[in-house]
Amino acid sequence: MKTLNIYSKKKRWKWGLFSLAVIIVAASLWYTNILVKHIARDQRKNLTLWAEAIQRKADLVNYTDRFFKQLENEERKKAEILAEAYKYVSIDTMSQSLTFYMKLIIGNTTVPVILTDENNFIKIARNVDFNTDTVKVLKGRLLKEFTKYVPVEINYLPGKKQFLYYKDSKLFKELRIVLNDLIESFFSEIVLNSASVPVIITDSTQQRILQFGQLNSKKTTDSAYMHKTLEQMASDNEPIEIELADQGKRYIFYQNSELLTRLMYFPYFQLSIIGLFLFIAYVLFSSARRSEQNQVWVGLAKETAHQLGTPISSMIAWIELLKLEGHESETIDELKKDIDRLHKITDRFSKIGSTPILKKENIVKVIYNDISYLKTRSSKKVEFSINRREDETIYAPINLHLFDWVIENLCKNAIDAIGGEGKIKIDIFDDEKYVIIDITDNGKGIPKSEFKTIFNPGYTSKKRGWGLGLSLAKRIIKEYHKGRIFVKASIVGKGTTFRIMLKK
Fold first, then answer.
1. Tell me, which fold does domain 355-503 have in CATH?
2. What residues does each domain of the chain span?
3. Which tens digit of pLDDT belongs to each residue from 35-45?
């Protein structure tokens, strides 16, 4: 079997271009992957530095908190020393150590203290922000304010007690505000982090979400989305555990930034874009090529019809002249049939490129007529058979001249395949939607790899011929009759079956 050079070259070009495209795409993806890995590595480094910075700042906050607790203990001790001083001042008014105790009391210029009797009547008050001339009893809001810490009890005489109340100094309160601001800003900085990564902060259970940042604001109200994101973060990175002041343990979950995620999927996106571009380019070039082929077919067909017109007219005139001269014979009758056939072929060529008129025809009768014509012009060793009786009727809309052309082409190819000796079987089936025609020969067969190629213009297995018959047959069935034609089955050395499907 021989195929025109153009198709073997075309196949090689296709594989060559496909291989080149694969190499280009692979190189592009490889290089993009390297870039993504570099960026991912740099961002991972930034994340690590960010996580370390969080831990260092947490340590700083915790250190500050421990320092404040030490200050708190110191103020408690100071209050206790003051209580002892007040006690001794009350008991020993003549002792020489009185001066020392008074210096201790007077030296307290920061811690607010109130000395009361058993009934909470104020005896002495220092470093307070109220007027001692008007406020005589420790009660109400003032009592609540000074009972943050347990008052120091002073037993200065048998059965006599005094109480020394104290609270945080102004300096200590200001430092406490600074610490609270530091903790608050610590979480804010995590949420609005410089690494620009999605962050979720949870309590010690790792389930209750306290704060979050760099997430889709439209979805953060959806608890299912938030917990799914939390699970994803936990699988991506180990959470950072911190313990801040008296707030207990907190866990910081984070994941790759949106930019890094996009970069990770970029190669696949790039491959999709390249694939889409190649597909569109293929469709456009194929459409342009088909359009050019159609114009060539139409031009060739109409020119052929035009060229055949003149000799056919002359041949008709010669036959009429022979009849007038009294030459009547079977040869002249057969010659007239062939001229009628040539006239029909010319009509077929003239219809290429025009919208054909389809009429309902009896397919069985059409097939019988075509086979009858071919029998008289082929070898007697070719055996034709049709699975339907000639008087049966199966209708389908066809253009008679063009459809005859298809049947003749397929049958002539079958005759060539069997080498002028063998069997050609035609089966006609009546389906709900289609009329199906199978043309089977017992010839040399077609390789499976060429089932589609044989319908391409220029494909031929003959030493002579243009390889246009099957291409025209496919065009007539597919484009003009909106049907299908294909190789149903073929075995090399045993035969081939072509199938035509016509819409009813």
1. Heat Shock Protein 90 (3.30.565)
2. 42-171, 181-258, 355-503
3. 777 776 776 67
